[in-house]
Amino acid sequence: MRAFLRSLPEYDYLYLGDNARAPYGNKSIQVIHEYTRQAVEFLFERGCVLIILACNTASAKALRKIQQEWLPYHSPNNRVLGVTIPLAEAGTQVTRYGRVGIIGTRATIESKVYEQELDKLRSDLKVYGMACPLLVPLVEEGWVGKPETNMILKKYLRSMKSKGVDTLILGCTHYPFLQKDIQRIMGKHCTVLSGPETVAEKLKDYLCRHPEIEKRLSRRGRTSFFTTDDPERFRRLGEEFLSQAIPDTQRVRLE
Q1: Please, which residues have CB within 8 angstroms of residue 230's CB and are 6 or more apart in sequence?
Q2: Which of 57, 123, 152, 224 has the fewest CB atoms lying closer than 10 Å?
Q3: Which long-range contacts (CB under 8 A, 24 or more apart) does 146-154 make?
């Protein structure tokens, strides 16, 4: 969201955080799909035209089914996009030696969605995945930069360094908050891809290629925030992550 507001500030946004049921990464594919469908339905009911699943787990486990089976029958004129394909495309473009690493939640890594998308683009790549389930709660609790977090990062990233990856994809929306420490641990010879900026640039390109969607987007520069958990905690953490004030947050139920 922060990257979208910087790159495309003229549009209106509805941000929905399913904080009460997060993280999705350790849940079953059936639960992930149901939670994602409920969120998509909620946003479409409030007038959204285009939804970005700003979650690698939802993008990996639920996006295709929603696009192919739910969207055509419930909201055929609207669109739902994910974050995995933009990052995979960027990974193939920046790798120097064809050794690409991915860190993400268990669900994202087990889905092998990045391996599949990277292979479609370049079959010569060596791709390595690593599940890092402790990182999301550490970011959520504000432990970025703490010695304990850096110790866990070093342990997770040890295998990536030993395999000589020259490009590391941060396959979770929380991980860019750890990017400076990840880059320091991986070293200057590894490119650590930032998901938000990459996805924002791809969204710009998508809107240029799909004027039939772009012209339906409202342009008042307004942003509304919704959470399924405590609005005050959401606002406190959200303002830290967004680097700007969040004036009002509504608590909603998705079930």
Answers
A1: 19, 251
A2: 123
A3: 149/178, 149/181, 150/181, 150/185, 153/178, 153/181, 153/182, 153/185, 154/185
Confidence grade of residue 141 (pLDDT, cut at 50, 70, 90): confident
pLDDT digits (tens, 9 = 90+) for 156-213: 999 999 999 999 999 998 899 999 999 999 999 999 997 898 999 999 999 999 999 9
DSSP the chain: -HHHHHH-TTS-EEEEE-TTT---TTS-HHHHHHHHHHHHHHHHHTT-SEEE---HHHHHHTHHHIIIIIHHHH-TTSEEE-SHHHHHHHHHHH-SSSEEEEEE-HHHHHHTHHHHHHHHH-TT-EEEEEE-TTHHHHHHTT-TT-HHHHHHHHHHHHHHHHTT-SEEEEESTTGGGGHHHHHHHH-TTSEEE-HHHHHHHHHHHHHHH-HHHHTTS--S--EEEEESS-HHHHHHHHHHHHTS----EEE----
How far is residue 194 CA from its own chain's centroid? 10
Alpha-carbon torsion, ordered 146, 4, 58, 120, to 10 deg: -100
Q: Is the distance from CB of 92 to CB of 122 less than 8 angstroms?
A: yes
Give the amino acid at 201.
Answer: E
Length of the chain, in residues = 255
Supply 152's token pair.
């866990």
Residues 6+ apart with CB under 8 A from 34: none
Active site residues: 55, 172
Reference 228, options 5, 80, 24; nearest CA is 24
